[in-house]
Amino acid sequence: MLDREGYRPNVGIILLNARNQVFWGKRLRTHSWQFPQGGIKYGESPEQAMFRELHEEVGLLPEHVQILARTRDWLRYEVPDHFIRKDARGHYKGQKQIWFLLRLMGRDTDMNLRATDHPEFDAWRWNEYWVPLDVVIEFKRGVYQMALTELARFLPKVNHHNRYLRSGMRPHARDDRRRSEMVDETLPGESPVEPPGEGHNGTNGPH
């Protein structure tokens, strides 16, 4: 399904964990990493397509996530001719995307890269929000930058007490002072930087 200009409607997904790290997937049998994305089928809304793609590519259901924001307008990228099937050249131009920012409300183990018979990823990891664009296929980099920039203001504030609540411990006064210093040193509206997460693979990692 193409629009009059030759763009296929599509959705992109930025999935956050509690540390504001993002799901970063390695495309099947390649060295390229990307966010989940996929086409909008005839009769689907962007939100319906997003939930379908989220399950097909990551194995998550609507109850596993919270929608934080979406891009206001379509973001477009053109696909070079050598990536386009010969029979589609001349009328297919590229993708136009609505991007969604989601927060994972479930657990890492709720994810399943093989929820369907046609997996998109064979490995994944949590990555810092500003992902390394040099590992993204070149013609998508501009859209990634635009989506990340537009949605960055909707990032939740990180709750630094979570690690104590999970373990049943109470923070020491020294830790409280240190956290106060971190907040004081941070610009208004920004959250202190958290360390990057560890990687997972699609077969031995969480499913």
Describe the structure.
- This protein is of the alpha+beta class.
- The chain is 21% helix and 25% strand.
- It has helices spanning 46-58, 141-151, 162-167, 173-185, and strands at 7-16, 22-27, 33-34, 37-39, 65-70, 75-78, 94-104, 121-127, 199-201.
- Strands 1, 4, 5, 6 and 7 form a 5-stranded mixed sheet that branches. Strands 3-2-8-9 form a 4-stranded antiparallel sheet, with no helix packed on it.
- The longest helix is centred in the first third of the chain and has 13 residues, at 46-58.
- The two termini are 32 Å apart.
- Residues 171-198 and 202-207 have low confidence and may be disordered.
CATH superfamily heading: Nucleoside Triphosphate Pyrophosphohydrolase
- Averaging pLDDT over every residue, what do you get? 84
User: Fraction of residues in helices?
Assistant: 10-25%
Number of helices: 4
Helix/sheet category: alpha+beta
**Domain module count:** 1
Largest sheet: 5 strands, mixed
Quaternary class: single chain
Summary of the model, kept short:
The chain is α+β, with helices and mostly antiparallel strands. The chain contains 4 helices and 9 strands, in the order ββββαββββαααβ.
Features:
207 residues; alpha+beta; Nucleoside Triphosphate Pyrophosphohydrolase; five-stranded mixed β-sheet; 4 helices; 25% strand; globular; disordered C terminus
Write the layout of secondary structure elements.
Blueprint: E1 7-16, E2 22-27, E3 33-34, E4 37-39, H1 46-58, E5 65-70, E6 75-78, E7 94-104, E8 121-127, H2 141-151, H3 162-167, H4 173-185, E9 199-201
